[in-house]
Amino acid sequence: MAAPKVGRLLGDLTRTVQYWVHQSDEEGLAGLAEGVHPGRPRRLTESQLKAVETALRQRPEDVGLSGNPWDGKTLSAFLQRRFLVGLSVRPCQRLFRQLGSRMRKPRPHLASGDPIAQAAHKKNSRP
Question: What is the mean pLDDT of residues 35-63?
Fold first, then answer.
């Protein structure tokens, strides 16, 4: 079977299929095995990640931070205080997603609002 057809069937580029064929010709099946992909080591260990996950289930006040809800800035401060690990806000936001947590912000509530006027506005403001 031709490389372009195999590529379409597998959802890969023709050049990738040609590379696979070349690797298998040179090294046999061992040449097709995935190699190690070294990268930058994680800044947090597995035990630290579990501690972060546990902390995110609590309020920031409970772990010694200010009364703000959990967000990237608060998590960054927590990591710096607890583990001496400096992560900026954006990687902390990614960490939220990685741990399956969400950044929750409270909805503003007007204490002096007129409920009747608000209900009338809601009814009449939508087409």
Answer: 90
